[in-house]
Amino acid sequence: MTERVYNFYAGPATLPLPVLKKAQGELLDFHGTGMSILEISHRSKEYDEVHKKASELLKELMGIPSNYKVLWLQGGASTQFFMVPLNLQQAGKPMEYVHTGAWAKKAIKEAKLYGEVKIVASSEDQKFTYIPKNVDFSQNAAFAHITSNETIGGIEWPEWPKVSSEVPLVCDMSSNFMDKVIDVKKFGLIYAGAQKNLGPAGVTVVIVRDDLINRVPENAPTMLKYKTHAEKDSLYNTCPCFSIYLCELVLEHLKSLGGITAMEKQNRKKAKLLYDIIDKSNGFYKGVAKLESRSLMNITFNLATPELEAKCVDEAKKKGLIGLKGHRDVGGMRASLYNAMSLEGTEVLCKFLKEFQEQNQ
Ligand SMILES: *Cc1c(COP(=O)(O)O)cnc(C)c1O
After folding, report:
1. DSSP 8-state class, residue 339
2. Residue whose CA is at the smallest distance from ligand 1 atom 7
3. 259-360, what's its fold?
4. What are the tens digits of pLDDT across the range 151-204?
5. 153 lines ligand 1 (CB under 6 A)
6. From the CA of 174, how far away is ligand 1's center (Å)?
7. Can you give the residue ranges of every domain in the chain?
8. 29: annotated active-site residue
9. What's the pLDDT score for residue 316?
C-alpha cells in the first residue's frame, strides 16, 4: 500500500483512518452475514441496526431535542436548495436569505422558483470576505436562511443571527457540520451534505423540527416531502445504505474521541496554527477572509502571483500535502481542516508553508 497523504480537499474530503480500516475489515462479511453491507437489504435486521444507530449517535452528539427528526436523504445539499422552499414556503410571506457567497447564491436561485425572496443582507460589496452583522430578518418571513460556512470563500458565522421565535432559522451546514458545539434549538431546519465533515458523498443529513414537517403543499412530489421521509424513518425508498453506514462509523469514532466538544477544541487549535502562519508571514501569505469571519474549516489565502501559488501547490504535493489549490471560481489557495484532519497533518502543513516562504520570498 502506498503511504497515505495529508488530504486538504474541500469535499469529498479526508476521513478518519480508523473508520476506513473498520469498513475495510468488515467489507466482505458484514457482522457474520457472509455478505457485504453493500449487498444486503435496506430492510434487513443487520442494516436496520446501523441505520438506527446513526440517527441515535447524531442526536446524542449534537444534543438534538426530541421534537426534531433526523433524516438521511439523497441529492446532495443542492437538492435541499429547492426542498427547503418547496416544504417551508407560506403564501404571502417572503423567504429571507443572507447572501454570503457561492453556496448562498445557489440556494437563493432555487428559492426564487417558489415565491418572493428577500435578500436581507449581503457581503457581495467586499467579495464575500465577511459575514454581515446585525442581520435584520422580518417578523413575517416564511423562514430565514443562512449558510453557516462558505466553503469556497472561507467565511463562517461567528455567532447566529437573531430571528423572531415565529420564524424558523434554516441553515446550510454542509461544510461545518459538527465542527463546534451548537444549540440545535435555535434552528428550525439544518441540512448538510455528508461529504465535507461527516462521511462520504451520497447522503445528506436533514435535522427538522416537527412542526415544520407538515407545512408542505399536498401536491408536492412524494419524494420531495420531508413528511414522507420523517414518517418512514428515511426508509420510504432504498436509502444510501453504505454512505449512512460510513457516517455511523464516523460518529462512533467522534464519540470515542470525546464528541463535538473535543473536536471544537482541536479545530480551533488547528485553525489558529495555520492562521498564525499566514498572519506572521509579513504579507507573503494573505488571508482572504476578514478576521472576525474566518472559517475554522476552510482556510483561504493568496500568494503574490498565481504562478507562485501553483509552485506552492506543486511542492506541497511532492511532500504529501494534497488538495491545496483554491476553488476554480476564485483561485488562490485553500486548506480544508475538517474534523478528520489531524493536528499532526496541520502542523506538517504549517512547517511546509514556513519553509516555502523562506525559500521564495
Ligand atoms: C459542497 C456544498 C454544497 C453542495 O453540496 P452537494 O452535496 O454537492 O450538493 C452546498 N453548500 C455548501 C456550504 C457546500 O459546501
Report:
1. T
2. 76
3. Aspartate Aminotransferase, domain 1 (3.90.1150)
4. 999 999 999 999 999 999 999 999 999 999 999 999 999 999 999 999 999 999
5. no
6. 6
7. 18-256, 259-360
8. no
9. 98
Q: Whose CA is nearest to atom 1 of ligand 1?
A: 174
Place of cell 420564524: 167
pTM over 0.85? The answer is yes
CATH of 18-256, one of 3.40.640.10, 2.40.37.10, 3.30.420.10, 3.30.70.890: 3.40.640.10
Q: Is the CB of 103 within 6 Å of ligand 1?
A: yes
- pLDDT over 80 (residue 1): no
Q: Specify whether 255 is catalytic.
A: no
- Taken as a whole, the chain contains a residue count of 361
172 tagged catalytic:
yes
Query: Ligand 1 pocket test: which of 147, 175, 203 has the largest number of ligand atoms within 8 Å of its C-beta?
Result: 175
Q: For a substitution probing ligand 1, which of 174, 179, 334 has the most ligand atoms within 8 Å of its CB?
A: 174
Instruction: Sort strands 6-7 and 321-322 into parallel, antiparallel or unpaired.
Output: parallel
Q: Which of 157, 172, 179, 270 is catalytic?
A: 172
Q: CB of 129 within 8 A of CB of 302?
A: no
**Best residue among 73, 103, 204, 297 to mutate for probing ligand 1, ranked by most atoms within 8 Å of CB:** 103
The tens digit of pLDDT for each residue in 215-267 reads 999 999 999 999 999 999 999 999 999 999 999 999 999 999 999 999 999 99
Whether the Cβ atoms of residue 176 and residue 149 lie closer than 8 Å to each other: yes
Long-range pairs, 189-196, Cβ under 8 A, ≥24: 189/84, 189/88, 189/143, 191/77, 191/80, 191/84, 192/77, 193/11, 193/76, 193/77, 193/78, 194/243, 194/247, 195/11, 195/12, 195/13, 196/10, 196/11, 196/13, 196/151, 196/297, 196/336, 196/338
* Per-residue model confidence as pLDDT tens digits over 108-148: 999 999 999 999 999 999 999 999 999 999 999 999 999 99
